[in-house]
Amino acid sequence: MRRAGPIDSPTDPFASVPLPMPGKKPPKVEGLPPGVSRDIFGATGQPEPKPEPAAGGGLPPVAPPPTPWPMQEPQPPASFRPAEPPPRPPSYDPEPQRRRILPTLLLVLVVLGLLAYLVPAVVMSGSVLRGTRVAGIDIGGLTVTQAADKLRAELAARLDRPVTVSMGGREESIQPDEAGLELDVVATIGEAPSGFPTPAEVWRAMTGTTDLQPKISIDAAQLARTVEGLAESVDKAPKEGRVVFSGLRPRAVLPQDGLLLDRDAAVRAISTAFLRSQGDVALNMVPAKPDTTEESVRRAVADAKRAVAAPVTLTKDGKQAELSPAAIAAHLTFVADGKGALKPEFDAEKALEPIEGKLVDLAQRPADATYQIIDNRPVLVPARQGRGVDAGKLAEDLNRVLARGGSRTLAVSLGAVKPQLSTSEVSGLGIKESVATFTTLFDCCQARASNIQKMAQQLDGTMVLPRKTFSFNEAMGQPTTEAGYLEAPQVVGGRMVNVVGGGGSQFATTLYNAVFLGGFENGEHTPMDYHAPRYPEGRDVAVLYPRRDFTWVNNSQYGVLIKTAYSPTSVTVTLWSTRRYDKVEAVVSDRREVTPFRRQSSSEAGCLPTVGQQGFTVDVTRVFYDNGKEVKRDKKVTTEYRPQAQVTCAARNDVE
Predict the structure, then answer these.
(1) Does the global pTM surpass 0.90?
(2) Is there a domain that residue 331 lies in?
(3) How do residues 84-106 score in pLDDT, each as one tens digit?
(4) In what ranges is there compositional bias, type Pro residues (predicted)?
(5) pLDDT at position 338 over 90
């Protein structure tokens, strides 16, 4: 094999690489060895500046200075590189790290807390707070409308149940309408937390409950009347000590404790019973003490014995009249003085009536001016001024004699006595025509009929002066058996009970309608609990001495004379004055909210049967006419009648 000759290396490394020609692209050189830059070929695409020709014009251009070959500094292999020393660890300081960690933890806790509140709050918003209960009924999580519907369905049904009350050894069933209770759903829902809950409400909803009491709208007047009716049937009022005469013999009636229904506590107990659906509740009876003592009664008996031991002689200018022991006994009473004692009171005015003529000519006694109705026209009876015994001074003198003893001959004083109403006053009052009359009917021959007739007798001839207020209770006084009134049925607080003077509401209703049609101003006026067909709708009155009165105002410039008339089955009240209006009429609305009555049977002692009546609401407006035209009208009066149960009294089967 032939040896290869020596390889000639070029002295110029650029000789083996063709140089670029002007106007031509440099050759593409690929695969340059490591460390060789493309810059050795010059700037590509850029024309090289032409050299300026020499001044001689014939010399070749000066060659540019050679560019040294860029060489990279050779790097030893990695395996031969000396290892760098590891970084020196800094000294450990925990405080900067803690300062960086604590804010982070706090931020995380705040975010978690917000999420723990916001997530359930958003879920609960728009509804009643979870865990909310009304009288044990859970309404939490419901919308306001759903909660209201649930309360109406469940709680209202609870309130519709009657409550049985026990008191004084008796039991009575109280209906919701008798108690005047009504569920106020809107107000109840208004107390429940709803909307977007606060953090405290979210916590309470998740960990506990919110208990609310239902809001009950209470007709205070109705509930008070119902309790009053219950009280009338069980109350045993305390009896004051007194002295009564059996002939001329005084007898002591010792005071007795009473037992009364606690009315305020009864109202609360009945309300609570309806709310909690107890069904049964016991009402408290509280003792009531009389004002007088046994010792004061015994002292009064001793005084009474001295009072009737002998007659009392009255003298005046040689004339004498005698008050017999019987007359003294008939007009002497002992009343409580409010301090535990009894004091004597002698009605000298009545005691003088049969004997005053012996001291003073009866023709000289005063008389008030009044009117008599003759041929349906008022005829004036003039007043008369006269002379008479000073009854007030006589009573004082006689009480002193009875208390201290001494002479039983008393000199009386006479003097001029003016009538209470003079002729000029009465004649100028305009009593000239009937301005209104009204009649109501009743069944004959009953105790209440007798009471109505007695009230008519008592009120007949009463004069009401201009701008004065008439009070029924003040004019009639307390109905008592001593005054001749009888015990008769009357509705009190929605319950039929026997009271002395029963029937008074019918007579008051008769007077009220005469006042209504006469155009006079209404005052205190309580409608009846139930509607009775014998009275106009919305134009009745309930009275009960002394707690419930009927008043009216004579708002005219004329006087009003009250005249009454009665028959075995009717009573009439007529008002005489000066007519101010052509006509006064009542505009009555249609009945609404009609409620059917219930039926029940009772075997209780003293049961009073009743005819069932529907309950309803009605409006009455009084309209005034003059010269055929309406001149004014009163504000409408709304009356709500409750349904009256039909009560059948069953025979009692008492077992010994």
Answers:
(1) no
(2) yes
(3) 666 655 555 566 666 678 777 77
(4) 61-93
(5) no
